[in-house]
Amino acid sequence: MCYNVDMNSNSIIRSAPLNRLKESRDLELIKVVTGIRRCGKSTLLKQYVSWLLSDQCKVSPDQVIEINLEDPQYRDLDSWEKLYDYINDRLQLDAMNYVIVDEVQNVPEFHRAIDGLFIKDNVDSYVTGSNAYMLSSKIATVLSGRYIEVKMLPFSFAEYRQARGEVERDNKVYSDYIQNGGFPYTLNLHSEELLRDYLSGVYNTILIKDVVNRDEIIDASVLDRIAKYIYGNIGNRLSIKKIADALSSGSRKISPHTVDAYLNALIDSYAVYRAKRFNLKSKEVLKTNDKYYIPDTGLRYYLFGSRIGDYGLLLENVVYFELLRRGFDVYIGVLDEYEIDFVAQKNGELYYFQVCQTLSEETTRLRELRPLQLLRDSYPKTILTLDVAPESNTDGILVLNAIDWLLGHRDRPI
Known about the structure:
By secondary structure, the chain is of the alpha/beta class. The protein is built from 15 helices and 17 strands.
C-alpha cells in the first residue's frame, strides 16, 4: 500500500478510506465514518473536502456545508430539528450539496435529520462518530440500505513510519510505535511528558464522553477498572465471569452483568475490539472465552508505563488490526486442543496466522508450527515473528519477518 504526505496539512493521506469516499461520491448512500476518538476521522473529511474543491472536481465552496458538533459555535444545534433546519437553509438549490457533520451522535435522534436530507436529490451526506450508538439497531433499521460504513483506526505501522519521515532502522521505529501508539497527533509531541498528557486526555475523554455520558454508566470507577483490566490482558482468553471475579475483592463485588454491560460500552466506543473464537472443525463461532484487542498500544503504555509487558502479545495486537485494515473478518482459530492466533476471512478465502516474538527456541518453533501442520486444507499458512531474516518454508508454512509484512514488503500471503 502506498501512502502520500499531504504537504498542506502535514498529514498522511489515508488512501483506502479516502478512495472509498471518492468512489461513493454522489451515490445515493450516506457515508458514515466511524472509529475511536482522535484516530483521524475529521482530517480524512478535510482531505476529502480539499479534493472536492480542487480543479479535478470543481465544486464551489458554497456547495460544501461542514459542521463539527464539538465546536461551541454549533452549541445551539441540540436537536435533530435544529440540525436539519440549519443545513436545509444553506442548501444550494441548483447544485449538488456536500453535507459533512462531525461527531453527529452528539445530536439526539440525528438520524431523523440525516434521513430527511437523504431524500433530497441534491444532497450528498457524510457523517462521523466516535460511538457505535450511531449505528445501533434502531438507527441502522431507519437507515437500512441507505448508508455505507467507512471504518477508521489510528495510524498503521506503515503510516506511522511514513509520517515520521525519518531514516531509521525499522526495528527502532516499531519499538516507538508500540510505545507511542498511532494517534496521528502524537507525532507532534516530542517529549514523554507531553505524550502522556495527551494520551491521558484521550483515554479520559473516551471514558467520559463516549462511554459514561452515552451509555448510562452508573459507576465510572468500575468502568475504568474494567478498561484497565482489558488493556492489561490483550490477547488472553477472557470470560465475563473471569473478569468479574478478578475485579471483585472483599465486600466490593462486581457482577457479571455489570461487566458485560460496561465492556459492551467500551466496544461501542471503539476503545476495545472483541475477537470471537472459531471452531475450525464444526465451523461454528464459539460463545465463550473471547479475546480482546486495543486499537492503540500507546494508551496501554499510558496506563502501565514501562510495565507494558509481553512484546509477543503486543505484536499480536498490531497484526490483528492490520488484518482489519486489510479488509478481513478476523477470528481466533480453535482446532481440538490447539489454537491458531488468527483466521482471516475475506471473499470466501481463509488465511491462517501464528504470531510470535521469536522462534529462536526450538520448542517455541515446534509449538507454533504444530496447529498449522494439523490443518488439512490448502489455504495459506503464515508465522509472523520479529526475528531478523526468518523467511523459510516448512510444510508449506511461510515464516516471515512481521515488520516486513506490516510494511507490505512481501506479496504473500496477503
